[in-house]
């Protein structure tokens, strides 16, 4: 803050933090100070966009087949829309109702703590 007569500084103390959802299907939530200060960065966040783009362009047919085998049903559309250290978020439209989509999650066996292969 620049105040009359010079530069002033303020120290803020966080009591709680509002975590906003990242898309139209998620809502925000209040986090306690303990939850906020103990949070860690998702190891896959820096590469998530590139990984999702690669899956949805270079591996579209593989993803589609995987979804059909994994879920045991036919899909008109299948795309990966989210990736974090716990798994993938998929957007699927069934062949029976291709205009309506739903989101499903495929979890990793354990949290991914690095970008290693």
Structure description:
With 117 residues, the chain is an alpha+beta fold. Helix content is 27%, strand content 32%. It contains 3 helices and 7 strands, in the order ββββαααβββ. The radius of gyration is 20 Å and the shape is elongated. The N and C termini lie far apart (46 Å). The model has no long low-confidence stretch (mean pLDDT 85).
Strand content: 25-35%
Strands ordered across the widest β-sheet: 5-6-7
Low-confidence stretches: none
Could you give the order of the helices and strands?
A: EEEEHHHEEE
The residue-averaged pLDDT reads: 85
Main beta-sheet strand count, sense and barrel state: 3 strands, antiparallel
What is the structure about, briefly put?
This protein has 117 residues and is of the alpha+beta class. The chain has three helices and seven strands.
């Amino acid at each position: 803050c620049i105040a009359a007569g010079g530069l002033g500084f303020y120290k803020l103390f966080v009591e709680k933090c509002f975590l906003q959802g990242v898309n139209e299907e998620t809502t925000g939530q209040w986090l306690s100070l303990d939850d906020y200060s103990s949070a860690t960065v998702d190891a896959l966040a820096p590469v998530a966009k590139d990984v999702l783009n690669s899956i949805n362009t270079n591996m579209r047919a593989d993803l589609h087949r995987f979804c059909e085998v994994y879920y045991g049903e036919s899909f008109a559309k299948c795309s990966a829309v989210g990736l974090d250290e716990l798994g993938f978020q998929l957007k699927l439209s069934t062949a029976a109702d291709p205009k309506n989509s739903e989101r499903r999650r495929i979890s990793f066996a354990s949290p991914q703590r690095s970008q290693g292969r």
